[in-house]
Amino acid sequence: MRQTSETRIEFNREGLPSFIRAVFGLSVIESWGRWTDANKAEAAEIHFEADLPENFDLVIEYYAFGPNAGQPVLVRCGSCIAAFAASGAQETVRVRIRPLGPARCITISPYYPTSPLELGLSGDDRRLGLALIAMKIECPDPGAGSAISN
Fold it and tell me: What is residue 74's DSSP assignment?
């Protein structure tokens, strides 16, 4: 997969971009994007039509729900596992990914999916983790650092 303007996912749009095969673990589309929803799957999974690059930055625009703020978010792609600390305020994070082999899936795992119902905020029983607004893949300059790999 080559980096182009077409490799950006806007989570508030109907349907999937042509380079995405399927997504799991996401709630319904809202005006700003979609929540990760652990009632649907323990982690959000984004499956791609083609192999992902050998070395790329995953750029995620998001914010964390409730007790997920300040906690680690795990990002998996093939044999690569990376993490970032979730913010309760909207931000954009860049995560370096090196799958070390062909990979077509990115998994995003919030630390503590929690429902607004559990917190006494509303009757919403979805187990929310991250509010995903947008995501894109960028290929960095050769020789840049890498994420933690197994």
Answer: E
Structure tokens at 114: 């929690």
Domain boundaries, the chain: 5-138
**CA 109 to CA 141: how far, in whole Å?**
27
What is 5-138's CATH number? Answer: 2.60.120.430
Q: What is the pLDDT of residues 130-145, one digit of tens each?
A: 999 999 999 865 544 4
Kindly state the percentage of the chain with pLDDT values over 90. 83
Which one, of 128, 95, 135, 134, lies nearest residue 26 by Cα? 128
For tokens 């499956």, what's the residue? Answer: 47
- The edge-to-edge listing of strands for the beta sheet with 105-109 is 20-24, 44-48, 105-109, 72-77, 80-85
pLDDT of residue 132: 98
Say what the pTM is: 0.87
